[in-house]
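Page 42, continued from yesterday. The earlier attempt failed because a stray header line got pasted into the input along with the sequence. Redoing it now with the clean sequence only.
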Amino acid sequence: MAVVALLAFALGAYWFLGRGDDVPPVETVVEAPPEIVPPPAPIEPEPEPVEIQTLDESDVFVRDLVAALSAHPGLAAWLVSDGIIRRVVVVVDNIADGTNPAQHVTFMRPETRFSAFGEGAYLSIDPQNYARYNLHAQIIDSIDTQGTAELYRMLQPLLTEAYVELGNPDRPFIGTLERAIVSLLNVPIVESQATLVEHAPFFHYNDERLETLSPAQKQFLGMGPDNVRTIQARLRQVALAIGISDSRLP
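This time it went through. C-alpha cells are written below.
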C-alpha cells in the first residue's frame, strides 16, 4: 500500500509540474486491493464426556477401554474374569506387600509346569521355563504407555473405591501402586543359571541375594532375564507417565 501511494504521488507531481497551470492535473485513482478475509477456523467438536460406571457394573466398560490399549490378541484373555478393578487393586496391593498374587490371576498361569535339572547341590533352573512367560512379556510390552496413563487417571475414582473396600480408607492407592512398581523394578537381572536347593514343595535359591527377595519378586524373577528386562522397561515408562518421579524409581 505504501508503494502504491508513492507511485500515485509521483504521477500526480509529474502532471502538475510538466503540463502547465492551464492543464488541470489528471487525477489518478488508486483502488485499494480488496481485503482478504481469512476463512473461519474449523470448530473442533468437543469430546463427549466419558460416563464412568459404578464399581459393580464396570467390567464391560473397563474391558473396552483396556482392549483399546493394545492390538495383541492375547490381551483379551486377561480380561475375561469378573471384578477387574477389584482384582487389579488386590494384585497391586499384594505385590506392594511382597505377597505372590498368583491366586488372583490364575488365568495368567503358564500351561507347562516349572522344571529344574541336575541333582543334589547342582540343581539349576531349566532355561526352557522362561519361554513359558514370553507371551506375558509380549502382551505387556505391546500396551500403549500414554494410553495406560490416561486410563489410570480416568479410573482413579473406581480404583480408590476398591482400595477403600480392601480396608485402606486413609492410604492413597497411588502410594501402593508406586511401592509395587518399585518392588518389581528392584528385581535383579540374572543372566547366569541360578542354582537351587530342593525344599519341598518348592525350591530355594542358593544365592542369598535372590533367596531374600519377596515371594512376589521371586515369581517375577522366574520369568527369565529377557522377559524381566522387557517388563521392567515398560513399567518404568508407565510409572513416569502417571506422574511418579524418576528420582523415586530404582
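Notes: The first strand starts at residue 116 and ends at 117.
Reminder to self: strip header lines before submitting.
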